[in-house]
Amino acid sequence: MRRALGIAALLAACSAVPAHAGRSCEDKPITQKAFSDAMAAGLGLQSALEASGADVALVARQGQDLSKYHLKYSHAGLAFRPVPGQPWRVYELLNDCGTADSELWVDGLANFFLDDPFTLDVLVMSPPPKVAAHLKEMLADPATLRRLHQLKYNMVAYPFSTKYQNSNQWVLEVVAASEASDVRVRTREQAQGWLKLAGYQPTEMNIGPLMRLGGRMFKANIAFDDHPSALRFSDRINAVTVDSMQAFLQSREEGWRVQEIKGPR
Question: The pTM is what?
């Protein structure tokens, strides 16, 4: 079951508004094949997570085709189980369809693949033991997770601004708070400051002026006013991507393990 963290979770309520990670708002019924494929992909992910030996991992799916930006995986979440033997869940930030609002959600592994993904491939990044222990503590504390959450959603949020937030940015900031062993990170500002000092480099993408203008005018969940003027007016944006997270975490040489799992065809 998908449920929101916070008040809605305490009431065990489900949102009546579809939630998406930067996808369209088409309300299409789930086909039997889509359901079966999602179940198979979820089982494959579960097997990989069980084999990792950890109880937490960063996972990413190919929700949409980003090949024109030379990217594959578009959306990340944090897979977690409180203790061995309990079901795995995926903690993720999703925006309320058609709006500029977001919420934190808890999904089952199969649900992670039900949002009409481009493929059912999945990337698993397993943290080293020390980081895994910190991540487990954070994911068991909804209040801590919400301190690192910004309600205002922006699909192309600037990585070093707290005005908006997108799905990957929330994951990265939670991971940053878990990685920061020398300081205690409690806010988004502190997480972003630590990422700068640690050398995180976002992905830079070139976008045309029409795409920038069209996104700002016609999409509630796309804005560019948090990006530095030098980037905006040269039709460039910086964003947190799965690729940039993987490059950053592996560059730290702490022992992050990366595995790609091909989904059912």
Answer: 0.88
